[in-house]
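Kindly review this protein for my students:
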Amino acid sequence: MREFGVYKNLTNEEYHADKEFISRSAILDFSRSAYTYWAKHINPNRPKKDATPAMILGSAFHKFVLEPDDFLNEFVFAPEPVTLKYSGREAYDEYKKELEICESSNKIILSHDVGNTIIDMREVLNNNKDAMNLICDSRIENSFFWQDKQSGLLLKSRPDILHDNIIVDLKTTSDASPRAFQSEMVKYGYHVQFAMIRDAVEAIEGRKISNFINLVIETKYPYNTAIYIIDEFAVNAGQDKYKQICIDMQKAKEENEYNDYGIQQIGLPKWAT
């Protein structure tokens, strides 16, 4: 088993490959149902999870902004598409040759349009002085592994950007407006993520962080950005949520019982009445 602590040079792939420690995504899957967690994280016959275009763009942008020196080790830009009919044999053959090089690289291929998008997004972010101040002089992509004292579960978390008293998470989204992102924060448990990182830093480094920021940028032109300061009430609520889920998860593991939605009685939602 991996020792508890913070790992500064662990790759994203190595972090996700460690299945002994439980991440925010696993906790959120369990909050949907214990069976969902089992099916996605324990079932030995679970299907491989393919990344969506939005996930690929988000991962590429993270790497492009936060770990630019390592970007080309994981991603490759596809050439601009050309057609034989309109470009001629020579240009078409050159395009096919470049495409074959990309496909043989064993890297994630970014289409020409996606490549241009993340370049444009980074330029917008680079021109935002407040955003760059949040990124500069920080610890990037450190991996924390610790044990939850209440449940005994092994947990892990990987903050994008870490300062002495600020946690910053870089998010890409189709709509960065306040109302839309607030809904997204609840849906994807960003407040849970901050709570876990706060607990990780306190458990491993003995200090408590009290400032939480989502740095958000849209994935469509004109690439609006937003800096959302998440209040401590939200983070505390996220902590209460994940702590209870950990207790329930440990019970499910001990009893080897992972229930789905089961039999319930439901009526009309409030908005319908």
Summary: DSSP finds twelve helices and ten strands in the chain.
